[in-house]
Design a protein that fits this description.
The protein is an alpha/beta fold. It has one domain: YbaK protein (Alpha-Beta Complex). It contains 6 helices and 10 strands, in the order αβαβββαβααβββαββ. The strands form 2 sheets. Strands 1, 2, 3, 5, 6, 7, 8 and 9 form an 8-stranded mixed beta sheet that branches.
Length: 160
């Protein structure tokens, strides 16, 4: 597997450098972090939510889960829920299901980043497959993605 060309182009055409990370296929955020030799708190997982029916990307540490009520307040939506796997199918055609990067600009979606991710100088996240990730400087990520930053996640055992 490799990072899909559309995702790599999205980043490089904007002058952002990154380090690709290839690892053995894994399917939970914690397993992926371990396979990529990244601490779980440093692995940023992307969770797709529907805010008033519109897809938004929620970015949070691997070992955290989305607090839907807090995300609802941050998005100013009347309803927020996690997207189903079926709903994900057509949204990210260049990605493995559940392995989309947090590039809202590529998909016409807003990105919300939990403020706990702002503590590290670098960020690591999916790059379109269950075996590829990107590591980049947090400052570069913030300039590229321009996420709304707020608190909407907290530690949990399993879940999103």
């Amino acid at each position: 597997m490799a990072i899909p060309a559309s995702i790599e182009r999205y980043v490089t055409s904007r002058g952002v450098s990154f380090t690709p990370i290839h690892y053995h296929v894994a399917f939970t955020a914690q397993e992926e972090a371990a396979a990529a030799h990244v601490r779980g708190r440093e692995w940023a997982k992307t969770v797709v939510c529907l805010a008033d029916g519109k897809p938004v990307l929620a970015l949070l540490p691997a070992h955290y889960r989305v607090d839907v009520n807090a995300l609802k307040a941050l998005t100013n939506a009347t309803q927020v829920r996690l997207a189903t796997e079926h709903e994900l199918a057509g949204l990210y055609p260049d990605c493995d299901t559940g392995a989309m990067p947090p590039f809202g600009g590529l998909y016409g979606q807003d990105v919300y980043m939990d403020d706990s991710l702002a503590a590290d100088a670098e960020i690591v996240f999916h790059a379109g497959t269950h075996a590829d990730a990107m590591r980049m400087r947090l400052d570069d990520f913030l300039a590229l993605v321009r996420p709304v930053i707020g608190r909407f996640a907290g530690p949990a055992q399993g879940g999103h």
